[in-house]
Amino acid sequence: MRILKRAHPLDWFAGGLLVCGVLLVATGALPTGPAGQAMTRIAPLVVFLATVIVLAELTGRAEVFDAVASWVARTGKGSYPLLFCLCVLFASVTTITLNLDTTAVLLTPVMLALSTRVGIAAVPLAMTTVWLSNTASLLLPVSNLTNLLAADRVALTPVEMATTMGVPQLVSILVTMACLWGFYWRLGRRGAESYIPPQPLRPADPVLFRVCALACAGFLLSILVIDVPLWSASLTAAVVVVAAFALRRRAELRLSLVPWRLLMLVPGMFLVVETVSAHGLHDLLTAAIGSDGGPLGMLRSAGVGAGLSNVLNNLPAYLAGEAAVPIGNHHQLLALLIGTNVGPLVTPWASLATLLWFERCRWHGTRIPLRRFMTTGLVLAVTGTVSATAALALV
């Protein structure tokens, strides 16, 4: 009963979605064949998701992210333009290498705490985190759950995906930077001309700090250089970090580290989307996306992905859209990926990362005006999706 009382509304939603998916299979609304195929496909994703979140959470507790954030602020030397560029780099690298949910869950409180320590306006830092957690998630399979699905469909290794999506990713980040500066970071918005850099951070446990930092570095090298399966790399790194905490700070190893909400949400979402697709959504999206694999077809695919993401959520939007894209139209599928990664910036529920980000901002006491969030997000969603898709078509 105590656990039920502590449950967040998002926990109830995730649990309800999973129960709904199971009931759809039990009642025959979703045949067992497609249901089994969907669960087989997402099994490696679920392992990766569980282990990478544990890895990131414990790495954050070892103060690795805090040390980097403190270094970023000191490197900025009191200059807002320089700090802006460094924050963009920090948020982009975190999203690209450790996935967008990690940026939302761990980098958001680090940035907000940094704003309190050095007197930096909180909203520009918060918006940098949430926008780049979405728009910087194109480059690697690890960056986003949708990327894992797309890379599997078009048979791209991490290096091949980075080569293909490199220019669209750069364009997406540059457009995001322009919108961030114009809407939130310029002098009239941030509220000060300069800031006082913080003192260097000294980790409370240097040994744990080094082990976690090396584990994260090893995780990244293993997926980029050795090309091992993502779930295997994240599992190995998580085991190393958990073992280090077991020796140094055992009390912090709790079951709450496991992202139970995500582990319920993802299978439930897959089952529900498979059911809806089988009962009419697939035909509707097939007509909306079309079969044109050229530039216009790519823009059309990206637009449908972005629009549906803001109505539903980017993960089910990608799943439904993927089934509607012809098998051989790989670039059209990657354009859909751009729409579902860069486009979900208008509504608070458009991506799980945004939902997690809102929760962290509320916990910190930072108020995000919803109207301004949606109007500025609409500008970035449109310009970013169109620009990145055009870059993919040209390159």
Describe this entry's structure for a reader.
- The protein has 395 residues and is mostly helical.
- It is 78% helix and 0% strand.
- The protein is built from 18 helices and no strands.
- It has helices at 2-6, 9-26, 32-61, 64-75, 80-98, 100-118, 122-135, 145-154, 158-185, 187-190, 206-226, 230-248, 260-289, 295-311, 314-324, 330-342, 352-364, 370-394.
- The longest helix is centred in the first third of the chain and has 30 residues, at 32-61.
- The termini are far apart.
- The mean pLDDT is 86.
The fraction of residues assigned to DSSP E strands is under 5%
End-to-end distance, in Å? 56 Å
Q: What shape does the CA trace take?
A: globular
Tell how many strands the DSSP assignment holds.
0
Summarize the entry for a quick read.
Helix content is 78%, strand content 0%. It has helices spanning 2-6, 9-26, 32-61, 64-75, 80-98, 100-118, 122-135, 145-154, 158-185, 187-190, 206-226, 230-248, 260-289, 295-311, 314-324, 330-342, 352-364, 370-394.
Q: What is this structure's SSE topology?
A:
Layout: H1 2-6, H2 9-26, H3 32-61, H4 64-75, H5 80-98, H6 100-118, H7 122-135, H8 145-154, H9 158-185, H10 187-190, H11 206-226, H12 230-248, H13 260-289, H14 295-311, H15 314-324, H16 330-342, H17 352-364, H18 370-394
